[in-house]
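Question thread 4412

I'm putting together a teaching handout and wanted feedback from people who do this every day. The idea is simple: show students a protein as raw sequence, then show them the structure tokens that encode its fold, then repeat with a second protein so they can compare. Below is the first pair exactly as I plan to print it.
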Amino acid sequence: MTRTQTRWVSDEVWAELDPNAGTMSRAQRRRALAVASAAVAVLIAGFTIDRSGVVQAHVDYSADSSDSGAASPKTKFFTRQVAVQNNGWTTIHVTSVGKDGPGLHLVRPNGPEGLPKDLDLQGSTAVPFDLHPGQIAIVEVAYQVTDCAAVSSDPFPVALRVDRPWGTQTVDISLPLMPAPGITNGLVPASDMIGWQKEMADAVCNPRQF
């Protein structure tokens, strides 16, 4: 027995079918290519503008640089140096550093306000200053602890205010969390990690732990 093949379309209709049906014409291909090229150009331009730092300043904590700090339990002051780096492609102008927080009053770099001289760390960059692409600067913030119990353990970024063509922009510099006092080395659960400001405040409020 031979198997016959059934053709559901007549020979006349089959011969008239367009073998290029469903494909784009040359004009349609040109339009599609132009749209795709424009989309790629927009993406590249957006990335370039973003990384340039013209719209959003790209300043980050520099983990490759060492920080230092000092505390005075007697006067309830502490100070901390933080290394920041400009990862954008344009120079930025930093006008001020730091902000108040729960139980914390910023006293430097805005002014001394009674900060003990022995807490004045050396090597800090005077504000205001220009931060060039790739450059690292050491900024210093100093606080008076106004309420030991109110100081939070949550992350507490160091705020940098940067001049922009349309006004001032605040950039938050996130610092790594650290184990709470008394926590041994090893794998530390997130619940036992505290912000840098809590460690410094504890050194002021509970000096026996250190």
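The second pair follows. I'd like the answer to focus on this one:
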Amino acid sequence: MNIRRFQQLLDAYGTREKNWPAEEREAARALLNSDAECASLVQQYQSLDEHLDEYVTRMPPGLGQRILSQLPAPLIDRIIGWLIPDVSSQIWQPAIAGSLLLILGMIIGASMMGSFLDDAGSESNWDEEIYLFALDDTSLIGLNDE
């Protein structure tokens, strides 16, 4: 360890030995005990360390709240705000949200229409499917007679 490296340690880690890198701590102590120039450097840096320890940042009042107010709202809050707007925004947004559910139901219903037809394309399954939709067990009695 030389005086240049010792000064780099003081610049980076300060005068507290516990902050120095463990692998260089013993060499730095040995140089500090043997060199008067290193001891004077430590005294100069100690006053800097004391000033830095005394320094307290002062945050302007309301700064934390201003920072938090600039963060975007959570996704669920934005969705709810879009679906249920306040009085000053447009009313058509809830109507669109409701119609999306209607359109989704129509798409699901249209995709199930293919399951009503058998491989030949006939409509023989229609009667059975309609009875299942109606949830009427008495209607199946007529099918068993055929």
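Top answer:
Good format. For the second protein you could add a caption like this: Residues 92-112 form the longest helix (21 residues). The chain has eight helices and no strands.
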